[in-house]
Specification:
Length: 263
């Protein structure tokens, strides 16, 4: 019985299979030969100290940076590496938008209607037509409800509190209904209450999809992630369930710090 060449060690085909992925910036390898299997339906966290290469890896997976070397295969064997962000989104791999890309004067409802319209492949032709956008109103309401913004759907985005803006980012990514959802520090800058709300939200929206998240908050990682990949100096230091990697002395030294060692 030969091993499946597309499979991982345990025989299942990962939804994303990253091999030898590298990105060089003027001779400096920010991501250095990363191998990563992301299991379908899992929440997979990327963690590591500042400068470890998490954001660069994230940008390589979503097309915002082109790799210097390596490959990112979808389970259907399509290659993502080197494609544009739009092409990768169309292939079902989408990242959450950043607050900085929200339109200050548009409401969450309008943002979502536009995102849904763009997802039809008809592009921005709907931009000026409220009537055309109205066909997406029902789905927009569902998404607002899903992320807890039902009461704030009609206010300009720039007047939303920080946590609500981040919730809108998530809703915009969900509007694309991706198979693989990438979240870049979804709880960054949040107070405890918003962190808990966001964790609960991610737990809800992971149903039926795969989530990859870059996250500094180890409590969030412990709560959400099925597997954790720890990066250091652009390489994979270790990978495994949080309960295992948190005890690894290399991780403790590299990242978690002595305060995380069990006493
Ligand atoms: N455009 C760039 N040009 C040159 N160097 C870069 C560029 N982008 C990232 N780097 C370098 O690559 C390394 C990895 O950066 P990256 O932002 O991916 O790390 P990170 O793990 O996301 O860090 P943080 O947790 O601080 O966000 C850093 O040393 C950074 O200075």
């Amino acid at each position: 019985m030969g091993a499946d060449p597309t499979g991982s060690a345990n025989g299942t085909v990962p939804i994303l299979k990253v091999r030898g992925l590298s990105r060089e910036f003027r001779g400096f390898l920010a991501v250095d030969g990363v191998d990563l299997d992301v299991a379908e339906g899992s929440v997979h966290a990327l963690v590591g100290p500042n400068g470890a290469g998490k954001t660069t890896l994230f940008n390589l997976l979503t097309g915002f940076l082109k790799p210097t070397a390596g490959s990112v295969l979808l389970s259907d064997r399509r290659e993502l590496a080197g494609r544009s962000p739009e092409a990768i989104t169309r292939m079902g791999v989408a990242r959450s938008f950043q607050i900085t890309s929200l339109f200050a004067e548009l409401t969450p409802r309008q943002h979502l209607e536009l995102a849904l319209a763009s997802g039809t492949g008809l592009g921005w032709r709907f931009w000026r037509s409220d009537r055309a956008l109205a066909r997406f109103a029902g789905r927009a309401e569902e998404l607002l409800d899903q992320v807890g913004l039902a009461d704030q759907g009609g206010v300009p985005a720039d007047s939303l509190p920080y946590g609500s803006k981040r919730a809108l980012e998530l809703a915009l990514a969900l509007a694309l209904d991706p198979k693989v959802l990438l979240l870049d520090e979804p709880t960054a800058g949040m107070g405890v209450e918003d962190v808990d709300r966001t964790s609960a939200l991610i737990r809800k929206i992971r149903a039926g999809r795969t989530v990859i998240l870059v996250e500094h908050n180890m409590n969030v990682v412990a709560n959400l992630a099925d597997r954790v990949t720890v990066l250091q100096h652009g390489k994979v230091l270790i990978e495994g369930p949080y309960a295992e990697i948190r005890h690894d002395p290399r991780v403790i030294t590299a990242y978690l710090g002595d305060s995380h060692v069990d006493r």
